[in-house]
Amino acid sequence: MSVFDWIEMAKDLEADGLEMYEGFLVSLESKYLDSVRKAIEDAGFQMPMLCCSPDFTHPDPQKRRSAIAYQKSMIKAAAQLGGPNTVCRVLSGQRWPEISQDQGLEYASSAIQECIETAAEYEIVLGLENHYKDGFWQYAEFAQKQDVFLELLQRIPKTAHFGVQYDPSNAVVAGDDPVELLRRVLDRVVSMHASDRHLVPGASLEDLKSAEGSTGYSKLLVHGVTGKGLNDYDTIFRLLRSVHYSGWISIEDGMNGMAEMQESLRFLHSKVAEYYP
Questions:
Q1: CA 15 to CA 200: how far, in whole Å?
Q2: Is 200 helix (H, G, I), strand (E, B) or coil?
Q3: Are 194 and 249 in contact (CB under 8 A)?
Q4: pTM surpassing 0.85?
Q5: By C-alpha distance, which of 163, 156, 96, 154 is closest to 126?
Q6: How many folded domains does the chain comprise?
C-alpha cells in the first residue's frame, strides 16, 4: 500500500501520531513531503518520528559517506514532516565481518556526530536505537549488544539534539536484559518503541545468529500484542516516570492485523493512565 493508504487506514486508531519509516516515502521532494504531512495532519495525527537506517560501518568509505549524506537528507525530511523536536532515528550500521569493533565504533560515532550538526540546524533530535536489523540489511546491527551500544553512546557527547531511541524487545533479541539497559540509558532516552517481539517456538538466539548474511528480517522473529510478551512494562514505565519522561511511545505491532494494533494501543493507554495520572 502507499503511505496515503496507510494514513487513511490508521484513522480509526486511538493514537496521537503516526511514525514514518524511510521506506514509506517514494520521494524526498518538498512537494511530495508536504502532501504526506498534510495527509497526516488531515487525519488528526502528528508525525513524531522518522525511522532511518544508515549504514555508517560499511567497509567501503564511499558507502559510508553516502550513508552520512542520506541521513542528513532524512533529517531535513523529518523536519518537513514533523517540525521542531521531531525524532529522526539513527543506527550505527551493519555488523560487517571484516570491520573490527574499534573500527565500527570510530566510523559510527564520527558519522553520528557529523549528523548531529545537521540535526541542530533543523531542530531535530537524533535517536540512536538498540536495533536488531533493518529489513534490507544482510547483517545485524553493529551496536545491537548492550556493551557495544553503551560504548558507542559514551563516545557521543550529550546534546539536546541526540539521545536514545529505546526498544526493549531489541534487547531481548540481543540476549540482554531490557530493564538493565534502560537503567543504563535512562537519562538519554528521547523516544521509545513499545513492542513485544519474540522468537518462534523452538528457536533460540543461536538460531537467530545463524541467519546472519541473509537479507531482511529473520522469520524466526515474530511480533505480538504489546503487553503479552516478555517485556516488564510496569518496571519500564516506573523507570520512565522516575525521570519525568514525556516523549513519544510508539507501537510496533499490527503484523497480524489491525485488531492486534488496537489491543496494543489499549494496553499502552492503560499504562500511561496508571503511571502518568
A1: 29
A2: coil
A3: yes
A4: yes
A5: 163
A6: 1
Q: Which domain holds residue 226?
A: 3-275
Alpha-carbon span 237 to 85, nearest angstrom:
22
Dihedral angle of Cα 90, 152, 144, 100, to the nearest 10 degrees: 110
- The grid cell for 197 is 517481539
Find out whether 209 and 174 touch, Cβ atoms under 8 Å. no
pLDDT tens by residue, 216-263: 455 666 677 899 887 999 999 999 999 999 999 999 876 778 898 999
Phi first, then psi: give them for residue 240, nearest 5 degrees. Answer: -60, -40
Contacts of 272 (CB under 8 A, 6+ apart): 237, 249
CB contact set of 157 (below 8 Å; sequence gap of 6+): 113
Cell numbers that stand for 259 in this block: 485488531
Strand pairing of 20-21 and 196-199? Answer: unpaired
- CATH number of the structural domain spanning residue 43: 3.20.20.150
